[in-house]
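TOKENISE THE FOLD
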Amino acid sequence: MEDGCRCCRSMRVRIPLREQTLRLRSVRGLKIKSMDILDFVYNWNNKLDCVAFTTLRLRNDSKYQLGLKKAVMLKGESKGDIYIEDIKHLKLDNINEFVARLDTGYCREKCVEIIKTMYKNKNINWETQQLSLILCVKTK
């Protein structure tokens, strides 16, 4: 799998995903700051194709707020814009089968494993760390 947007791949230039996303948005004249982008590396359960979807993220009250609008990006490609409709906070142990299946399409045990893998490079105490279950609704 090659890195970079289509125009950069054709020139054989390698640009990190975050920088590539910002350049792509800037080139299109949108000038969206990185904090205004909701990045995904995988489209779990094909949820990004729906009008509304959830995402489980580490709790960050300054980054995720009710009513906040964000551009959704999947591997550098736009999947539309959303606003945050609702947020529920929970700990990893409180993820139930219902939440796990809707968010990832996998059972609770696999969902917990996926989350731990996503944040494996961070020193996280899963006994105390809160997650945010964010309800996103597309605006376009």
